[in-house]
Design brief:
The complex is a heterotrimer, with 2 copies of chain A (213 residues) and 1 copy of chain B (276 residues). Chain A has 213 residues and is of the alpha+beta class. Chain A has 10 helices and 7 strands. In chain A, strands 4-6-5 form a 3-stranded antiparallel sheet. In chain A, helix 1 packs across helix 3. The longest helix of chain A has 15 residues. Chain B is mainly α and 276 residues long. In chain B, the strands form 2 sheets. Chain B has a 3-stranded antiparallel sheet. Chain B is elongated and about 95 Å long. Classes of the chains: A alpha+beta (213), B mainly alpha (276). Chains in contact: A-B, A-C, B-C. The interface between B and C is large, with 74 and 77 residues.
């Protein structure tokens, strides 16, 4: 009975988490209320793995812990979810990219401070994977946070010769100057793969499109 | 009223640059307390509703004179203290004053239709507002994704589509995102950020990328002669910013040896970046 | 056998998607390779819901489709995964949202009229960015103010299939009673203590709560 409860809580945690969970983490999350030892958790994970044997997902141990992942034989189907629609960038991602662009080199903490909210780790990951952002050092303060900056590919993809071509903050704040600057940048001629769906006002998200974080 | 309501310890004012140690003794109501009090209300209707409910009264049985009196007391206290008051509060005060004078006057014998009876209108507005106030409280209690509800998710180890297919956002989107983020930040910090040449920022990144391999670079290696004097200035500013922000160290092996820019080493004193 | 395959693919899709999936979407994703009709998909979803009955997650239909979500009895455990608290919205924002919910399409001016206070532009901006509200047209009066309404994302985030599932708006009290009260209103005047403690509506606002929108 207790075993069953532990199994279910662990399954809930693993299903909800967007990161792998280590046994230590799970133990810490549960220890205040459930008297489950790490050995109990390991046993429960084994039972969970067995119960997933006939399911399209599986329990997998990776470097930083355990996660539930879709079995590879379903990845083609799942990939269609991403192919179907041109993804739309989340507000958080665009603002993060903009801050890295204008305030580089900048740490994640500084971005969070300016935006006033904490950031999903996926945002930086997406930007790194897309090749627009790179880690260019660390700030020598406690925690040694990574410093982020834009890449040459960022300039290429946005058809910029240098960041100096972007309007400055005072210019941006004046609607007329902003329009003039955008015109100067040839706002209408953007890279070919910018989907027309992107042209919509950023304030009116079409909730039916997949959002990239 | 204010969208960002924060209850915090009253800030003591500065007088000619000097922080005051305490408030003057004769001022027995800290203005801030009253401000916080009023900020807890979403406008005059909300304040009126509060005054009514505080006395356990039904809207339909408001002792209008008494409530009006209380409302006026708050408003006049606010204006005595010269605190800025949203116009709506004054409009409501005028309306209440009008209702009060009507109540005190002998009832007109004829022509008294409730077509534009300000009492009727006020009671209806209060009722209507209260419906939505209650509805908003109910709404806030409903389970919400991310707060009370969590999604079950699992991804394949690799997603078939490559990251490269992500489209390039428009520059406009990017710039507007920056503007919005900065505008929001300014609302928090109450100071605007001065113009800063982007070329310095860009150069800071380039220098960091160059030295991140671990090998220090001499200053002259960081500037390209074709960039001319401006390039050197930009480069120098970038190096200074990097050092200031604890992102790089400036070293010199012996006097008159070339300055070397290297990856920052752990420091004793904590230097926080600019913009704090 | 085929049924089983369809069930598993749907489960994989639902687990992988970060948005609810409609039957139409699932049908479109599968139709090129699997000859599954929409009716087949609906049946498969029913089987899936049953198979999740003993699990800590459940299949739920919301505004824009179906999703798998953690059962609420595990929310307390799962909420511990994230250190930052979910945003707490200001009363101004929630009241505005309530008005848009129940009175849509509605203009900003109409919201201000009912709330008796002018509105910070940030409220609508936050609601638009949050994806809960969108502009759905303009009212053809001078100034052509935008008409606001809720989005499918709002339904999803509040776990609603449609707006009908919202609790009904508190009723306004009997108009006749109102007339009677108005007559009394002039008479009671300063003798407030005569007030009967009858039919009292919700409590006064808790003015001590600090809210950060």
């Amino acid at each position: 009975m207790e075993e069953n409860k532990l199994d279910k809580i662990l399954e809930a945690l693993l299903l909800a988490s967007d990161q792998p969970l280590s046994v230590e983490q799970m133990h810490r999350l549960l220890s205040t209320d459930l008297s489950a030892s790490k050995a109990d958790i390991r046993e429960a994970l084994e039972r969970l793995a067995t119960s997933y044997e006939s399911r399209p997902a599986q329990l997998k141990e990776v470097g930083s812990g355990f996660r539930l992942q879709i079995r590879s034989e379903y990845s083609d189907w799942v990939g269609r979810l991403w192919q179907e629609k041109p993804p739309k960038y989340s507000r958080a991602l665009l603002e993060t990219l903009a801050l890295i662009c204008y305030r580089q080199p900048i740490t994640r903490g500084e971005i969070e401070e300016i935006r006033g909210v904490s950031m999903s780790p996926n945002i930086i990951k997406t930007l790194l994977e897309r090749g627009w952002v790179r880690e260019i050092g660390v700030r020598e303060v406690p925690g040694r946070p990574a410093l982020l900056g834009t890449t040459p590919q960022f300039l290429d993809d946005f058809s910029l010769k240098s960041l100096d071509e972007l309007p400055s903050l005072p210019e941006i704040k004046d609607p007329e100057q902003l329009e003039a600057a955008l015109l100067r940048l040839g706002q209408t001629a953007i890279t070919a793969d910018a989907a027309p769906a992107q042209a919509q006002a950023p304030d009116a998200p079409d909730s039916s499109t997949a959002t990239v974080h | 009223m204010s969208e960002f309501i924060e209850v915090q310890a009253p800030k003591l004012p500065k007088i000619q640059g000097q922080q005051m140690d305490k408030l003057p003794d004769d001022l027995y109501i800290p203005p801030h307390a009253l401000e916080v009090f009023l900020e807890a209300f979403e406008g005059p209707l909300d304040l009126l509703l509060y005054l009514i409910r505080k006395q356990n009264l039904n809207i339909l049985d408001i002792p209008l004179l008494k409530i009006t009196q209380q409302y006026m007391e708050y408003i006049s206290l606010m204006s005595t203290l010269k605190l800025e008051l949203a116009a709506e509060y004054l409009v409501m005060a005028a309306l209440l004053a009008e209702i009060k004078s009507r109540l005190l006057l002998p009832k007109p014998v004829e022509g008294e239709e409730d077509g534009d009876d300000p009492r009727m209108t006020l009671v209806r507005r209060l009722q209507e507002y209260e419906r939505f106030k209650t509805a908003s409280e109910n709404l806030d209690q409903m389970p919400r994704v991310g707060r009370d509800l969590f999604l079950a998710q699992a991804r394949p180890e690799r997603i078939a589509t490559p990251a490269q297919t992500l489209p390039v956002p428009q520059i406009r989107e990017l710039i507007e995102a920056f503007r919005d983020a900065m505008e929001r930040a300014e609302m928090f910090t109450h100071h605007s950020i001065a113009r800063e040449p982007l070329s310095v920022r860009e150069r800071m990144s380039r220098i960091l990328a160059l030295i991140s391999g671990g090998k220090p670079a001499a200053f002259h290696e960081l500037c390209d002669p074709v960039e001319g004097r401006l390039g050197v200035v930009v480069c120098l500013l970038a190096v200074l910013e990097l050092v200031k922000g604890a992102m790089a160290d400036l070293t010199q092996e012996k006097p008159f040896a070339p300055l070397l820019i290297a990856v920052a080493r752990a420091r004793q004193a904590v230097v926080e970046g600019e913009g704090k």
